[in-house]
Amino acid sequence: MSGPRVNSFFLGNSSGVNFSIILSSVDEETGKLQLADCSGSKRAGDWNLNVTPGMNASKVTISLTRNLQLCLPNATDCCTTPLCVVEMLQVLACRDSVMLARLLIQAEIYANSSFTGNVSENATIIPNQVFHPLGSCPCNLTAGACDVRCCCDLECTPGLKQLFNESCFNGVFGGDVNPPFDQLCSSESMEYIPDWFPFLCVQSSLNNTPFLGYFYHGSTSTPRVPSFKIPLQTSPGRLFTGYRQGDPIMTEENEYFTIPQQSMAGQCVGNAPVAYLRNFDVKCLTNLASYKEGLPHDVRVNSGTGDFIQQNVIYRAITDMGKFITESESLHTAEVLCQNVTFAEDYTFIWKDKNIEQINVTVFLGNLCDGEILAQRFTVKFQSLKSTNATVLFGNPGYQVGKPVKAANMNASDTFGSLNIWQTAGRGLCTLATSTPVLFGLDSFSGCILEVGIHEDCSLLRGNVTEKLNSLIQATHVGKRDNSSYSDVNDWVEIIRLDPFNSDTNVSNGNLKGICPDIPANLNIRIIFADVGALQGIPQQEILAVQISYSTVIWQFQCGLICENSTSFLPITASVQFIKVPAQPPIPMTRFQMNYTEFDCNRNDVCWPQIFYPLTRFYTGEPYSQCLAKGLLLAFLVLLAAIMSNPWFSKLWNSSLV
């Protein structure tokens, strides 16, 4: 221990236990600690022992009672050396002279050096830097030594000052902490004093000087660190006026309602807040060692009006674990540890306007064993209270960011279509990959790996890759709006398809096996949209056009020392890009605007075409009557200056004086 107090705990029942403390010493010949018995007491030398009994544990406190101050001249009861206490203690716990436990303590305690001498009520008063300079000699930077060129340093002897007497620091740094400033009426430091100086000078004492700013830095504001908890209301009453699209959903404890989601790096974040009207469907890989439970389902959620609603939770058992267990590292035996965990959670938020009306949660449980990799699935879906079908949301004409893009297949009897991208798991093979809908406003890039043999026919390979890419686009049209009707053709835009280049040759030039050119391995989806209006302050976005194209690559078989009877991999990808365009084409620039840029108000600080802008109705900084009055006054002054600058006015003025 290095302080005057230390705490420990005696575990177990302390009834009938006798605690004691003794000072121990080391035998100089053998170097061993002397044995102790149970005959000690709760005080030994300057040490006290205090025991606070408990139910299953007792707190044992050892404290030092002596003074730890360094000795002053002619003082007692103090420390003569900086290392004040060097002792070895033993704390014993005995019952009926039988030792139950022993605690060995080696104490090395130094004397207090924060101050020397007795504490006095005459505390040092530090002057307020706003009104008085804190230091009388700012250039005195070294304690106990003379600072060169610091003539106000009291540690500089007259002999040393003669060495730099002619080059001392001047001004505030040199010790003149209250110099007369230039604005002072009694100051004579200015070489040239204008005639108006007596009318604008300052009558003040030297105690109130602007040089105090050299010592006073003013009040500093601490940076506001965003906390995970945000207050919803600062005064009693329901001040929470509802959610808007993208707002985080709050709980009863003023915390974010979190569900695991994927970050920009593709990893799962367990404490990601759920955004209002933002659907998502994610998969997170975990195993039994790293499995963690999420937010409890008994947490109540703020509905948006200040009320709190309970989640309606339904628990179900997983029947087909093959959809969730992506990899098994070892065979199941009787000794393998298994645990009942959450395989999937499906959240459905029933909403109306800016409020949440109901939350339905379906939790799927199953056994996860050691060595297995689980692909947990978390889905969040917002369903309007007015909707009769969970897939159709009425009342919102435009798309919202994060909602699936609506697609239709007009060539089939069932017009329902899909526009998807891949969602891979495990090894990333195309045979195991699933699909996820394209979400509006979110650029995405996904892909999978296709196994190809060395004897693969190039034409069949092109057809196989094209078929897998086309399986993502099961639609001929895309809805302009989120509430597009399947019965109205005008609510849909046709998908523009640019077919890939089809080569007539089965193999590459030169009949080399293992090389295939013009493989359409990349699917490019470009969606053009624009803002067409606003509903309750929320911009409504509409899709204008959709284009699908393919990018070709040259595939070459990759192998090691032996290529026969082996497979290579061909990565195929799908990318989605959202391009925002203005709702109306911009007005083209004239030739005058392109050549004479000095008259362009957007590219210059001085805008001559808008010199009379304050006099127009478009200026709202001041009332129009004040702007008109100031403009007329300015015009009068300009006219008066022009008249007085004419030569005939000076002749008329001189003749009138004569």
From TrEMBL:
The keyword Glycoprotein applies. Transmembrane segments: none annotated. Keywords: Cilium biogenesis/degradation, Glycoprotein, Signal. Pfam families: DUF1619_N, TCTN_DUF1619. GO terms for cellular component: MKS complex. GO terms for biological process: cilium assembly; protein localization to ciliary transition zone; smoothened signaling pathway. Residues 112-221 form the Tectonic-1-3 N-terminal domain. Coiled coil: none annotated. Residues 241-383, 398-581 form the Tectonic-1-3 domain. The keyword Signal applies. Part of the tectonic-like complex (also named B9 complex). Belongs to the tectonic family. This is TECT2 protein. It comes from Uria aalge (Common mure).
